Amino acid sequence: MARIMRFINHLKIQHGDFILITGNLVKFLMKTKKEDKNFNLDILIDLILGRIGQEGTLAIQTFNWDFCTGETYDIINSKSKTGSLGNIALKRKDFKRTSHPIYSFAVAGKYQKELISLDNKGAFDDKSPFDFMFKKNAQMIIIELPLQNSFTFVHYVEEIYNVSYRYNKTFKATYIDADGNKELLSYDMHVRDIENNVLTNIEPLEKIFIDNNVMNVSLYEDIEIKKTEQPSALS
Question: How far is 93 from 168, CA to CA, in rounded Å?
Answer without folding.
Answer: 34
